[in-house]
Amino acid sequence: MADTDSFLHLARPLGPVAVGTAPTTAPLNVVIQPQALFSILDHSLRRNADQERVIGTLLGTRSEDGTEVEIRSTFAVGHTETTDQVEVDMEYQKQMLALHLKANPKEVLVGWYATASELNTFSALIQNFYSGQGDGTWPHPAVHLTVSTEAGKDIETRAYISAPVGVTAERAADSAAFIPVPYEIRYGEAEKSGLEAIASARDAEERAANIFTDIEALERAIEDVLGMIDRVSRYVESVIDEEAPASTAMGQFLLNTLALAPKVEPADIERDFNNHIQDVLVVSYLANTIRTQMELSNRLATAQLTLGGESGNAESGGQRGGQRGGKGGRGGQQRQERSGEEARA
Amino acid sequence: MAEKEVPLTAVKVEALVVMKIIKHGSQAFPTTATGAIVGMDVGGTLEITNSFPFPVVEMPAESHFDNAAPNPAAAAPRAKANAAYEAEMVRMLREVNVDANSVGWYTSANMGNFVNMNVIENQFFYQKEMNERTVALVHDVSRSAQGSLSLRAFRLSPKFMAAFKENKFTSEELQKSNLRYQDILVELPVEIHNSHLITSFIHQLQSPSQAAPTDLPASLAALESSPFAKSSVLAPNYDNLSLSIDPFLEKNCDLLLDSIEVHHTETNNFQYYQRSLAREQAKITAWQNKRKTENASRAALKQPLLPEDEWQRLFKLPQEPSRLDSMLNSRQVEQYARQVDSFVSATTGKMFAVKGNLLPGEVAK
């Protein structure tokens, strides 16, 4: 993120704990999956015109020792806020939670989000609701995520957990000490290709992108790599010409990278290359042959009546049976070839 | 829907939906994951703005054809319980200003193996019950893992809808309607659309602030741990440059072989039908001839004639097997073949590049 706070996170605050169990003070780490953030941003776009911020529920998983919370999905919860009171649609939250858990039985309630960086009395009130007993995350601390979506400013994400403060029960209900916790945005292999497609639209005027075919994606990747190689060689040249300051570390790094190129005999490469390319092309050829055969067989199957009419049906059927048998035989041959081919590959 | 005349020509998918579908699909992998998509159609473009997964429920095997669904999730979109779930969810989403119109469903696939009865029946269910303007989004988990995202939108063609409604899949009917396997599914171009906030977010996520020129690193370790070395580049995706191709081709070959097997079974079934049909017809002709000679002799003897159309009661022609399965199978094979093609085209390029790199002298040749 553009604005990452650096803070030392030694121990998390004491949360509300059950009597008799030792309070845990192990650090807590929050992992956010991109789709959760995306849906928060989407919700923020869909807020009512008069609303400053919107809130919603965070769902995800908690590691067994409770030191890592992974936020996987979210849903929006309606609420209204005036200067002196806040109303959260609890009924909606409960129903939605039940619906969500039906489809995602592995996810649990982990906290809530708001789309403004501000923390106020209402935040504390809502936080206490989410971390409370019964419907809340108790005995685990509820995670509060703020994602600022103010126009003209960077999107700022912060994660908090809270500790109870207040001398009397009434005061404790609407106050909480929010303590920032570190978070990271993590995405898996599967999401990478999706993010790529989304990111490719980032510079487009209409904020839209088509999905690339394999070869287009390859072209782009290669162009990018070529660009990087150009940059590096420009840098190296300018160092040689003594225009740019030299750096031992940089030189060492580049040398290490160059050393990654494998040393192989040209003859080996030639042989492996030819073998492999032939395999690949044969598979492609066979796949297309199969496709053509299928199409032919389908055409023959539906075209038979035009050949002989009603009375010639039986005869032409017999003939076609022969044809088909021949085709089946060919198919068998193909298959043998293919399995041999696979064994080689 | 007021503007029903404008046919759907394109599908615009929000980034949020893309991510949600990917998440659901990869979590459920290798089983099929299905869910509903909501949005609205503007002119000829269907905008998909949100999605939610379907819960997996057991469903009674009371489908159109008597094929028991081996995977309950694959059949989920047309299960009764899920229709209620979807209605409920849509109602809830409407309260928080989401475009709450059901516009179809999504499914995950593995190596393009999505052309099957389940998908057809689901989409039929949607196109019949809801309205004409629904699509099926297919996310191919395995292909997306190979590099570029594979997300496609399909609809059933009107021709196929008509045929499927009346279950007319005999060769005679197919000939009349001229329905070919290429006509089953109509693919719509998919476009990914980002909201302003997401655009801004992606920009932030990508670049560590490059405002000031950075100092040269002091040591190798410093270089490797600097934020620039760690910053992840989202696009383009360098996974595309990976050379491991055998697993992909192998899997594809396996699937193709399976399809050939299915094709064989179908062909055999059809041949069997034709043989029995020929046999029955031979019997009928024999019977008719016999009746004719009998009638001729009766006419000679001035006896009342026996009716000549009694054979319709005596013999029963065998039922022609439905051609639907073999059509779907053909479509599936086409899908695989195209997949292999596009993969091979990218791979050969990569391989020549590698060769050119390792043997610099031989490129000119």
A few lines on this structure:
Chain B: One of its GO terms (molecular function) is metallopeptidase activity. The complex is a heterodimer of chains A (345) and B (365). Chain A is an alpha/beta fold and 345 residues long.
Descriptive account of the structure:
The complex is a heterodimer of chains A (345) and B (365). With 345 residues, chain A is an alpha/beta fold. Helix content of chain A is 48%, strand content 18%. Among the domains of chain A are: 29-190, Cytidine Deaminase, domain 2 (3-Layer(aba) Sandwich), CATH 3.40.140.10; 267-302 and 325-344. Chain A contains nine helices and eleven strands. In chain A, the strands form two sheets. Chain A has an eight-stranded mixed sheet. In chain A, strand 7 and strand 8 (156-164) form a beta hairpin. In chain A, helix 8 packs antiparallel against helix 9. Chain A is extended, with a radius of gyration of 32 Å. Chain A starts with 28 loop residues before the first strand and ends with a helix. Chain B is α/β, with parallel strands linked by helices and 365 residues long. An eight-stranded mixed sheet of chain B has the order 7-6-5-4-2-3-1-8. Chains A and B meet through helix 1, strand 3, helix 2, helix 5 and strand 11 of A and helix 1, strand 3, helix 3, helix 5 and helix 7 of B. Strand 11 (208-210) of chain A pairs antiparallel with strand 8 (190-193) of chain B, so a sheet runs across the interface.
Show the helix and strand layout.
The complex is a heterodimer of chains A (345) and B (365).
Chain A: E1 29-32, H1 34-45, E2 55-62, E3 68-77, E4 79-81, E5 86-88, H2 90-103, E6 108-114, H3 121-130, E7 143-148, E8 156-164, H4 169-173, E9 176-181, E10 183-185, H5 189-199, E11 208-210, H6 214-240, H7 248-258, H8 266-308, H9 313-344
Helix pairs in contact in A: 8-9
Chain B: E1 10-14, H1 15-28, E2 34-42, E3 45-53, H2 72-75, H3 80-95, E4 102-109, H4 117-130, E5 135-140, H5 141-145, E6 151-156, H6 158-166, H7 171-177, E7 185-188, E8 190-193, H8 196-206, H9 220-225, H10 227-230, H11 246-300, H12 311-314, H13 324-358
Parallel strand pairs in B: 1-3, 1-8, 4-5
Antiparallel strand pairs in B: 2-3, 2-4, 5-6, 6-7
